[in-house]
Structures are given as C-alpha cells and as structure tokens.
Specification:
Layout (H helix, E strand, L loop, with lengths): L1 E5 L2 E5 L7 E8 L10 E4 L4 E5 L8 E10 L5 E11 L36 H23 L10 H21 L5 H25 L5
Antiparallel strand pairs: 1-2, 2-5, 3-4, 3-6, 6-7
C-alpha cells in the first residue's frame, strides 16, 4: 500500500489480492466522538481518492482506517493514524451530520411551566356581586310595591328574573373559582344578546301607564 496527499485529496494505492471491497474510513476523534459518522471512500481499480471536502467543512483530527472485506465476509482493518483537517470556513463544534451541539439530547430534561393564571382581587369580585345583588333586591322591592304584583307577573318578567339570577350565579361561580376568566367571557359573549332582550322586555312590562 502506498499513499500520498495532494492538496485537498488523499490518494492511496492498495496492492494485494483476496479483497472483495476496500475502502478508506475517516472519523472525527476530538469532539463528540459518539455522534460522528464515518466518511468512507471506496477503492476503484486498487486506488482510493478521498476528497477532504467530503468532510463537510468540519475541522479537527480524524482517525484514518483502511478496511478490506473478502468474499467470505471477513473484514480486516489497518490503522493509518490520524490526520488534521482545517477549512477556512469550517467549524469544529459540530458533527459530520451538521448537528449542532444544542440539538443533541441532554443528560437531564429541563422543563418550564407558565406562571399561574391571575385569580383577580377578592374585594373587586365581592363589590361587583354585591352591586348586582343590591340592584336585584331593589328591583324585587319595586315590583312588590305594585298592586297585585304576582298576578301581573308575565313571561317577560319571569325571563328577566331568570336572566338576573343567571348573571349573579355566573359572577359567584367566577368568584369562587368554579369557572375561569376565559370561560366566563365566552358565556357572557354567547348569552349577552339573549339576556339583553329579556331585560328590555321585562323592563318594558313594568312600566305603569297613567
């Protein structure tokens, strides 16, 4: 076997018989050895021409190994030492597969969780609920002061009372944490048109004509 290096090529001439296949293997040995792939070049007519550029611009030291396989499947290896490769635009902290180190698996799994949802202020929730309850009680008191209030209670008035009770129940559920803010907003968005109609019709029915 004879060898020579010419610029960015390695030329080897293999003399011998009994090999079905002969190839030269280079593997990086000075950075993340377990993740480096071997770059091979097969012999053609007893000669191997290995282009250094096939190392994908990865700088460092490479172990050279000559491998010969016979027709029976037996393989023989010859250690040819190391060779240093340097590219002007190359990088050493990577692999032949172009896998940056930050993409490799870490020995420990790191996980982060978002901050808990803001639960709101208790005094504000209590104030809103108290205001709604006071307005509702005032409305009930005004209705009871009318003549025969239960006899004049119609469907619109009943729906108005149901709407107000539903709104108070929703605020209390949000206050105690049974529903979150997003669920509360969705319920209000879908129920607001119907509730406004019930409130309008209920208030129209309570007007006293003179």
């Amino acid at each position: 076997m004879e060898g020579a290096q010419d610029g960015s090529w390695i030329h080897l001439t293999v003399v011998g018989e009994g090999f079905e296949q002969v190839y030269l293997s280079l593997k990086k040995t000075d950075y993340m050895v377990e993740l480096q792939q071997s770059v091979n070049s097969h012999a053609i007519d007893g000669k191997i021409s290995f282009p250094i550029d096939s190392l994908n611009l990865v700088n460092g030291k490479y172990q050279m190994t000559l491998v010969g396989t016979s027709a029976t499947g037996k393989a023989l290896k010859w250690d040819l030492g190391t060779i240093s490769a340097w590219f002007k635009e190359g990088s050493q902290s990577t692999t032949n597969n172009h896998i940056p180190s930050k993409f490799n698996t870490k020995p420990e799994i790191e996980a982060s969780f978002p901050a808990p949802d803001f639960q709101g202020r208790l005094w504000l929730s209590v104030s809103v609920v108290a205001t709604v309850v006071a307005a509702f009680l005032y409305y009930i008191h005004a209705q009871l002061t009318l003549v025969t209030p239960l006899a004049k209670l119609n469907v619109s008035g009943s729906l108005l009372i149901v709407s107000l009770l539903g709104l108070m129940a929703l605020l209390i559920a949000f206050w105690i944490g049974y529903v979150n803010l997003l669920q509360t907003m969705w319920i209000l968005a879908f129920s607001a048109p119907v509730s406004l109609i019930f409130v309008y019709r209920g208030l129209q029915a309570t007007k006293i004509k003179i």
